[in-house]
Amino acid sequence: MATAGTIDSSDNSLDEPGGAVADEIQRWRECAAASVPADRARAESGILLAYRRAGLRAPERVVWAGSPREAVTLIRALSGTDTGASVREAVRTAPWAAERRRAHEQLGAAGWSARWSATGGRLWDTTQALVERIRRGVLDEFAADDPGAETEIRLVLLDAVLGQHDAPWLAALSTDQSPLDGLVQVCRSAGWWWPFEKVAVVCERPVALHRDEAGRLDRGDGPALAFPDGFALHAWRGMPVPAAFLAELRTLTPERIRAEENAELRRVMLEHYGYDRYLSDSGARPVHRDETGTLWRIELDGDEPVVMVEVLNSTPEPDGTHRTYWLRVPPTTRQAKEGVAWTFGLGAEVYAPLRET
Asked: What span, in angstroms and rounded, lies between the C-alpha atoms of 160 and 310?
């Protein structure tokens, strides 16, 4: 049976929805998504342990930053004399590679693939997407003031040990009493960090994280991701948007939506405003009616048209009324029946809805 921090591929619970392994993966998931203050004492203890496991002397000091943006600022301000050389290779890369190689030799290719699928693979997509968004957000902020520094900043970001966002690969490897235990301790206690010979720079965790059901950054009334120093990312269903844009969503009108030149931002506006409401408020006219419903279409400059089928639910609500549904369909749709059939994955020629008698 696997113990906390160790996943045994021979454990039958790898294939079960519950059990110790599922509980452990949930703990790693919560670690990756934690938006609470760092446990600084435990994180610093983990850093010292990681250096010791790598056979290195402890750093002379640990410097805390409010976000990856502030960490990059601090690192760029420090000279090589202040920091010494980066020791990321010894602290993170080498022990990770050794443990992965050991697991691969023990389990074989198929066994390792099964372990990854049952553990880190379940966390990878959403966590890695978040990592890339943070990197992009930091790059964008610096590029606004210093466009020529992008390459330098990118290299600093890539040199980070990802702390809580290293949860996916740590979940897949044996970490109890192993060369990885210091990294695990930091992962469960803090955000990204940079190990150098003389200093370690460590980030706080976010103070807010909002995601939709697909795991994408998503919030309509504030930052989707925020750090204590003010660094923040704004997004609507995964799409980066300016902070001022979100504030404007509360006062949208059809005229403002039509005036937006950026097709992606206009699509966000439409999703927030509601396609059915937009069609109604825009004075759109139906282009086709049949026994399945009514087809509506409205043209948008520089983007594909909004085409929707209005259908009436034949089953009455408790108060006797019938609810109306709006189904967005491909812009090539020409008949209501064709659109309704498309929502069922059928062609209009084979779609035959039951008629009430």
From this structure: 51
Confirm whether 140 is domain-assigned.
yes
Q: What pLDDT was estimated at residue 3?
A: 33
Residue 265 has phi, psi (to 5 degrees) of -65, -35
Position with higher pLDDT, 236 vs 186: 186
Give me the DSSP letters along 280-316.
Answer: HHTT--EEEEETTEEEEEEEETTEEEEEEEEEE-SSP
Residue of 212, 259, 264, 258 whose CA lies nearest to 238 = 212
Number of domains in the chain: 2
Tell me what the mean pLDDT of segment 325-340 comes to. Answer: 89
Could you tell me if 145 and 291 lie in one domain? no
Cα distance between residue 50 and residue 178, in whole Å: 10
Task: Supply the range of the domain harboring residue 335.
Answer: 254-343
Whether residue 232 is contained in a domain is answered as no
Candidate from 6-10, 85-89, 180-184, 258-262 with smallest mean pLDDT: 6-10
Does 153 lie in the same domain as 264? no
* Tokens matching residue 336: 């209501």
> In sequence order, which residues have a C-beta less than 8 Å from that of residue 116 and are 6 or more positions away?
172
Q: Is residue 224 part of a domain?
A: no
User: How long is the chain?
Assistant: 357
In this structure, is residue 350 part of a structural domain?
Answer: no
| 181 plus 282 within the same structural domain | no
Per-residue pLDDT reduced to its tens digit, 117-159: 999 999 999 999 999 999 999 999 998 888 889 999 999 999 9
Pick the last residue of a domain from 205, 227, 244.
205
Supply the pLDDT for residue 2. Answer: 34
Q: Which residue is it, tokens 């790598």?
A: 54
Alpha carbons 168 and 119: distance in angstroms, whole number = 7
Residue by residue, DSSP assigns 47-116 as HHHHHHHTT-PPPSEEEEESSHHHHHHHHHHS-HHHH-SB-HIIIIIHHHHHHHHHHHHHHHHHHHHHHH
